[in-house]
Amino acid sequence: MRLIIRDDPSSASSYVANYIVQRINHFAPSPTRPFVLGLPTGSSPVGVYRILVEKYKAGEVSFENVVTFNMDEYISLPRDHPQSYHTFMYTHLFSHIDIPPQNVHLLDGNAPNLEAECLAYEAKIQAAGGIDLFLAGIGEDGHIAFNEPGSSLASRTRVKTLTYDTILANSRFFEGGLDQVPKMALTVGVQTVLDASEVVVIVLGARKALALQKCIEQGVNHMWTLSALQLHPHPMIVCDEDATLELQVKTVKYFKSIEQIARAEGFEQILPTKIRTGPAPEVRVQRAATVVVDGFQSPTIASPQPTTSHLLRASPETEYPVRSRSPSPDFTPDRMGSRIGDPEHTRRLTPDPDQQQQKKQFAQPEPGLLQRHARSRSKTPRPVVVTTRINAVGA
Ligand SMILES: N[C@@H]1[C@@H](O)[C@H](O)[C@@H](COP(=O)(O)O)O[C@@H]1O
Questions:
Q1: Residues 187 and 233 placed together within one structural domain of the fold
Q2: Which spans does this entry mark as compositional bias, Polar residues (predicted)?
Q3: Same-domain status, 339 and 217
Q4: Which residues are catalytic?
Q5: Is residue 202 helix, strand or coil?
Q6: 64 and 97 fall within a common domain
């Protein structure tokens, strides 16, 4: 995890906007290979969007080959309501840049079948090749998108009931107060966010400090869904000083120092290799060769053999060395019995070698027994058992 700490909201926003521009430009998107960007709403990303618009206008970046997926949307709020996330995104970003309308994806909180809407959204993300960079904000209770405390960390796009805390926090945007805030929303899941190649979270202000502390200094916990970022290979949180208020001094110093060292070493803004943000490398699945031993086909990754059930079905007699029958004294590998004081044990465990020799001379193997053992061995190869039985014959 990278934690980038900046003095104030505007320098944190500037860092994130520059980062996104660099990612898009480095990716060099084309119509057939667009850059797929996940986007949030809320007050936190407003500064980032403002700078992205400025950079677009200055010719530093184009969104022509960028495809976007927004994180969430209220249910039942008219699409053109001033507080719908549709309105928010067009007001702050989409109306000011060159993104083609068909490249913009937002959940429809008024869809006739909300569940189908969510499933279709996941399918669209898949069809776009997955999200290259998911930008996110967080709620005061540590939610990412609308994944409220207690959300499954394996969740995907779905309907979510909002907590009282979130309704209260978001009521500042609704003139009528609490009653006007929708109580339910559609949201991408925690796993949908984790599936992105890269996740960048902007965290601003003291009211997010506890959530940041839970995410950075404590374990992965579904009550602070942002903490699931610890499971992502490339997460980066960009915050202002106020958001660090609940962090330990040593945590802040640690993250600041590694950023300083990285800068001194010349890789402050190291751009990712193609493996990180380029098209996924072709993964060749090499099938393990099928090995057939004595009629038993070994499992392969492509066609796993139900080994467990095979063993469960098998009778212990045929599948396992039978431990309940102790080996005869003849198989004691060394003369351990001589170390046991009890003469009874000594006699049983370590027969007199001379007696052994005599037995060997007189004992005749039963005709055909060795051949029968060889046959049974070909069905169930259990070298230990087989060896044991053959030796028993010779004893
Ligand atoms: N669903 C959104 C979240 O995606 C966003 O992160 C959060 C933070 O909003 P703000 O940045 O205004 O604190 O608001 C809402 O709850």
A1: yes
A2: 298-310
A3: no
A4: 72, 141, 143, 148
A5: strand
A6: yes
Same domain, 48 and 163: yes
Give the residue from 294, 316, 338 where a domain finishes.
316
Tell me the sheet residues that pair with 201.
136, 237
Q: For residue 356, how far is the Cα from the chain centroid?
A: 62
Residues 377 and 302 in one domain: no
Ligand 1 within 6 A of CB of 42: yes
Range of the domain at 372: 321-394
**Integer Rg of the chain from CA:** 33
Residues 167 and 105 in one domain: yes
Distance 312 CA to ligand 1 centre (A): 52
Cα(43) to ligand 1 centroid in Å equals 7
Cβ atoms 297, 361 nearer than 8 A: no
Query: Locate tokens 């907590």: which residue?
Result: 163
pLDDT of residue 43: 96
- Tell me the H-state helices in 227-305: 249-264, 274-277
Q: Residue 210: name the closest of 238, 243, 180, 167 by CA.
A: 243
Task: Tell me the mean pLDDT per 10 residues along the chain, length 395.
Answer: 97 98 96 97 97 98 98 96 96 98 98 97 97 97 96 97 92 87 97 97 98 97 97 96 98 95 74 50 43 48 39 38 40 44 50 56 53 50 42 35
What is the count of structural domains for the chain? 3
- Atom index in ligand 1 nearest the CA of residue 208 equals 13
Residue to substitute in 13, 16, 39, 41 for testing ligand 1 pocket (most ligand atoms within 8 angstroms of CB): 41
Protein residue whose Cα sits closest to atom 7 of ligand 1? 139
Among 170, 226, 231, which Cα is nearest to 201's? 226
Rounded distance from Cα 170 to ligand 1 centre (Å): 8
